[in-house]
Amino acid sequence: MSFFDKIFGGKEEAKEQKSFWKKIESEDDLRIVIENSYAYKVAIFKHSTSCFISKTVLKNFEREIENLENKEDIADLYFLDLLAFRPISNKIAADLDIRHESPQLLVIEDGKVINDASHQNISINQLS
Length: 128
Fold this sequence. Notes:
By secondary structure, this protein is α/β, with parallel strands linked by helices. 33% of the residues lie in helices and 22% in strands.
């Protein structure tokens, strides 16, 4: 790994995704997420893999989740790689009537965004 990859994150970082994330990689995945929101709270973390700020916010959020004593009490967590799946991010913005930001955390219940945050405002507090 190069010096810059150590500082800013490199290709190896994508392999380190935490086990609590469920990936959104298709419109069908997104449809299922929205359907699930009618049964229980869900959250989507929209992440730009090339942005240092987004990487930092993601790491901080993941650290908060890992430090929780009872992870079962939080929303189901979904992860969207914005660079690989930008059309899905656009669909989220249009379908849920929410402005696109990156990084962004959307908390959804009954098919509607009930809480959203971006950049340094993202924390587990949005999940409650």
